[in-house]
Amino acid sequence: MDRLTLLHQTLLEGLAQIAGVRHCSPFPKRRDEVRLPAIFLDLAELEPARDPGTGELALITHWEARVLVSDRQPETVLWSLVQGVMLWLYDHAWPALNVGRANLKQAAPDHFSPEYQGHRIWLVEWTHTLRVGDSVWAGEGIVPDTVILGWNGEAGDQLELTGDDPDV
Fold it and tell me: Rounded distance, CA 89 to CA 31, Å?
């Protein structure tokens, strides 16, 4: 299983463990019966990240979680769940998957889902940076641990610097 799929599965499993959540899944393609409170998870965007210099592709993954409760529930129930989602994301990183802690962007009411009238919905948005592919520094072989820098082709030579050197 690739790292992105593993991260998605890990997020689903973790968010499902938040106290009070009765359903956690990807955003449904059709209107299914869902037990509330529910969390719908979506990967919204993939964006290239800064090259780590390892031969791996670095990606910024943009995630959205919609937290749904019945409009008969007090608003404080929804706030508590949203806070739980944000805290869970903040507290978790997966170094084995090359995934660090979430970069939380925002949490706000989501008024753009008319098919969910009769529900209160908040949208939580965050990013994770993920590296995919194989690192050129992993595996067998010699991994350099010293970098020698030189000027004018004198790398490795012992240079004696004095206060008279104009380039220093």
Answer: 27
Domain with 50 in it: what CATH number? Answer: 3.30.2000.10
Tens digits of residue pLDDT in 44-86: 999 999 998 888 899 999 999 999 999 999 999 999 999 999 9
Q: Which domain holds residue 62?
A: 3-132
What's the mean per-residue pLDDT of the chain? 86
For residue 63, tell me if it sits in a domain: yes
Q: How many domains does the chain fold into?
A: 1
pLDDT, tens only, 121-143? 999 999 999 988 888 877 676 66
- SS3 string, the chain, reads CCHHHHHHHHHHHHHHCCCCCCEEEECCCCCCCCCCCEEEEEEEEEEECCCCCCCCEEEEEEEEEEEEEECCCCHHHHHHHHHHHHHHHHHCCEHHHCECCCEEEEEEECCCCHHHCCEEEEEEEEEEEEEECCCCCCCCCCCCCCCCCCCCCCCCCCCCCCCCCCCC
